[in-house]
Amino acid sequence: MQIDILTLFPDMFTGPLTESMLKRGQESGALSLKIHDMRAHAEGKHRQCDDQPYGGGAGMLMMAEPIVKCIEAVSGERVAGSKPHCIYLSPRGQRLTQKKVEELAQKPWLLLLAGHYEGIDQRVIDGWIDEEISIGDYVLTGGELPAMVLVDAVARHVPGVLGKQESAEEESFSPALGGKKEYPHYTRPEDFRGMKVPEVLLSGNHKKIDEWRKSQLR
Ligand code: 4FV
Fold first, then answer.
1. pLDDT of residue 54
2. Is the pTM of this model over 0.70?
3. Residue 110 class from Cβ within 10 Å (0-12 exposed, 13-18 middle, 19+ buried)?
4. Nearest to residue 130, comparing CAs of 84, 91, 66?
5. What atom in ligand 1 is closest to the CA of residue 139?
6. What is the DSSP annotation of 113-149?
7. What is the spatial distance between Cα 110 and Cα 5, in angstroms, rounded to a whole number?
8. Considering only CA atoms, which residue is closest to atom 9 of ligand 1?
9. How many beta carbons lie within 10 A of that of residue 52, not counting itself?
10. What pLDDT is stored for residue 82 in this prediction?
11. For 51, what's the count of Cα atoms within 13 Å in the CB-facing half-sphere?
12. Is residue 81's pLDDT more than 70?
C-alpha cells in the first residue's frame, strides 16, 4: 500500500511514522509512506497558503490552489489511470471505525489531506476529495495527528506490516470477537505485588480459557 500525506508541517510526521511497526512496514516494502509539503506548491515569494474567510469570521483558511496543485502533482506520479483514494481529515467527516479501517486497508493507494487553521476552501472538498473522515468530536489544531492515527490503524491490516507474532485477527472490534472490546491480558510474573493472574489462564485448559475470555468481552 502507498499512502501520500499532504501537510504544511512535514516534520510533525518524523517519529510516529518512522518507528516500530510503521518503520518495519516501510523497510519490508509492504508500506510506502510519502510526506508532501503543500507550501512547495504555493505561488509568490511568500508562498502564501492561507487567507481570510469570505463572509468574515475568526481565523484563516487554507487556500485551494496550493492544495490542488499538490494533489495533482502527487496523483500524477503513478501510472496513468490509477488515482489515489483522497481523504480529508476533518471534524465534519464520518467517524473512523475499525470497519472503515479494514475497508481502507484494501485500497492500494491513499492520499491523506491534513488541513490547518480553521480548515480548507470547500471547493477542494467538492472537487478533489473522495471522503471526509473524523477521528472524534473534538477540534484539533491540524489534521496531522488524525492522519497519523489513520495511517497507524490502517497499516496494521496491510499484509507484511505486522510481524508474525503480532495479529490483527483477535482484537477489539474485530469480527473474531464479534466487534466487541477484547478480554483482559496477563503476562509474567504470575504474582505481581500480590496481584495474581486468573487461575483459568494458568490451567492449560483452552476450552475453559476461551469460555473465560468470551465472558470478559465488553
Ligand atoms: C479533526 C478531527 C480536526 C479542524 C480544523 C484541523 C481540525 C483544523 N480532523 N478529526 N477531530 N481537525 O479536529 O479529523 O484545520
1. 97
2. yes
3. buried
4. 84
5. 13
6. EE-BTT-B-HHHHHHH-SEEEES-SS--SBSHHHHHH
7. 8
8. 90
9. 12
10. 79
11. 12
12. no
